[in-house]
Write a structure and sequence with these properties.
Beta-Lactamase, 16 helices, five-stranded antiparallel sheet, globular, alpha+beta, Alpha-Beta Plaits
């Protein structure tokens, strides 16, 4: 079958038309220029707005990554515990560029500032009024656009910092600021638009100038202010600035506490020169093309119809994919370049749809507590495989403890909820073992944190090795504590498993040059019940924790069962 290419469909008729009616084509191009130019301006501006939203999300992600990473840094924890401002400044200042953030603020457990990398000489004041600080002191990681004591507008994340006993000893705040001329100049270069930042309704940083002077301090237009500040809505439109027309976009930022607008982003694209150039082209095109327009209208219409029909179909299909509908069935079946493009687009949609389905299944399995489930990334190739591999790594990072490789507390919360519901339905016993390495703080102090990490890894490996059933589940509870969930296991069975673990750890050898450091013991609290409505998961865990306390009080290296008065088993 002869394949007519798109070039043959367009070029040959165009040569005939250009030979006879060159003037009328000029008219056609002039009109097309107007619409295309306007469309391109709108598309570019909207693309910039979308890119700007992604940019804000990316910067927020930078602050989250920086804050969370530093909250696990042993040197940072030590400096916070010792309230060593100089050490904090040295450590955190060196971490700004690698994580792509502008500043760190470190405070103690009462919200008193210990150090600011952006104002090294300013510390000792309270920042407890900030929402993300309150959240961090309550044990939550939170990110907001928020105003502060020094930085007026920034994306920031606050995380709690825990001591070895799981108590909060301080907080780390990371931020990317937007309230300076340097920052708005960066945004201007990045998005090729004029940028301004308003503190409520007053311009505090801008790239727009008048007579080469900054116009900082100017207020918002009252009509626009009512939409943005009062109604808390974004604004798109055209605004006259010093006699020049700008296509504009205003984005309000809400304070996380009182939900009032505390800052506004402004994007502006000048259109005066573009409109003037468009008018000149249209005028010339009308003059030159009017005569030929009538003669060529019928011919151009018939030719363009045959060309545009499959393109319109493909454009609609591409629009559906762009809107998130990956189940689209590409309707273009021609054998030319448009047909090839349609089939390629269908392959892309199918691959992305498969990847999304696999991710949904992965998330569902992890929510069930199935921490061993992973993506089959070998089904993908090229950048799609890289994307699938990265998703798999992120999923693993979110459910497993990075030090010991066993599930983390989040995974345990998912698993216990599933097993609790199952045991409630089936009226079967559910057992829990709460474990704590004996005198681990003294172990760390004596042999160092690196040896302490080896001990944690050794204990985790031993526990995992001794759990034979696929339904048995071990997780790191926090610090030197571990928790084991034993579905469909009665009290005596749970005690047997606990005793087996205790003996194995007592006999195990931890890699260490010092013979004393090669040994560790563990205390275990055991609790078993058949879940009922009168009991909660929290009570269940608390009972096992009480039994663990009894085991430690009884001399450690022992197993205690909740509800017994006979001491260690």
């Amino acid at each position: 079958m002869f394949k007519k290419s798109l070039k043959v469909k367009i070029i040959l008729p165009s040569i005939i038309i250009l030979s006879v009616l060159i003037v009328s084509l000029n008219m056609f191009l002039s009109v097309r220029f107007l619409f295309l130019n306007d469309a391109l301006i709108n598309e570019k501006f909207e693309a910039n707005i979308k890119s700007f939203h992604f940019y804000l999300d990316d910067k927020t992600s930078n602050t989250q990554m920086a804050a969370v990473s530093m909250s696990f840094d042993a040197d940072a924890i030590k400096a916070i515990r010792e309230r060593d401002t100089e050490a904090l400044l040295r450590l955190f200042t060196s971490k700004q560029i690698p994580y792509g953030v502008n500043y760190y603020t470190i405070a103690d457990h009462e919200g008193i500032v210990l150090a600011r990398t952006h104002e090294p000489d300013r510390f000792g004041d309270s920042i407890l009024y900030q929402q993300n600080v309150k959240n961090a002191l309550a044990g939550e990681v939170s990110s907001y656009f928020e105003t502060g004591t020094i930085v007026q507008v920034s994306a920031r994340t606050a995380v709690p910092v825990y001591d070895t006993d799981d108590s909060i000893i301080g907080i780390i705040i990371t931020g990317v600021r937007f309230d300076s001329d340097n920052e708005v100049e960066k945004l201007k270069k990045l998005f090729e638009v004029e940028v301004a930042i308003f503190a409520i309704n007053t311009r505090i940083a801008t790239t727009t100038t008048k007579d080469e002077q900054s116009i900082v301090g100017m207020a918002l237009d009252p009509k626009i202010e009512e939409i943005i500040i009062k109604n808390k809505q974004e604004y798109r439109g055209s605004v006259d600035i010093f006699g020049e027309t700008y296509k504009t976009y205003y984005k309000p930022l809400l304070d996380p506490q009182d939900k009032k607008v505390f800052a506004v982003f402004f994007f502006g694209m000048p259109t005066t020169e573009v409109v003037a150039a468009s008018n000149n082209v249209i005028r010339d095109g009308i003059i030159c093309g009017f005569i030929g327009l009538v003669i060529s209208a019928i011919l151009i219409y018939s030719i363009m119809s045959s060309i545009s029909e499959p393109i319109i179909k493909l454009t609609n299909d591409m629009g559906n994919i762009a809107d998130g509908n990956l189940r689209v069935d590409i309707k273009v079946q021609s054998e030319d370049e448009v047909g090839h493009l349609g089939r390629s687009l269908q392959r892309i949609a199918n691959i992305l749809h498969k990847l999304l389905d696999d991710i949904h299944i992965l998330i569902a399995e992890h929510k069930k507590g199935n921490t061993e489930y992973d993506l089959n990334t070998e089904e993908f190739h090229g950048d799609y495989k890289i994307l699938a591999d990265n998703v798999s790594k992120l999923a693993t990072f979110s459910i497993k403890d990075p030090l010991t490789g066993i599930p983390n507390r989040r995974s345990f919360n998912n698993r216990i909820e599933m097993e609790w519901n199952r045991a409630t339905r089936e009226k079967t016993p559910l057992s829990i073992l709460m474990m704590d390495i004996d005198k681990f703080k003294e172990y760390n102090d004596t042999f160092g944190h690196q040896q302490g990490d080896l001990a944690l890894q050794s204990v985790a490996d031993t526990i995992k090795r001794l759990l034979i059933r696929s339904t048995d589940f071990v997780a790191r509870w926090g610090g030197e504590e571990f928790v084991v969930l034993l579905p469909n296991t009665n009290s005596s069975g749970a005690v047997g498993v606990a005793e087996k673990i205790r003996i194995a750890i007592e006999k195990s050898v931890i890699p260490c040059d010092d013979e004393r450091g090669a040994k560790a013991t563990i205390s275990i609290g055991v609790h078993t019940l058949i879940p009922e409505q009168s009991c909660s998961i929290c009570d269940f865990i608390s009972a096992a924790d009480s039994a663990l306390y009894e085991a430690k009080e009884a001399g450690r290296n022992s197993v205690c069962r909740h509800g017994t008065n006979t001491g260690p088993i």
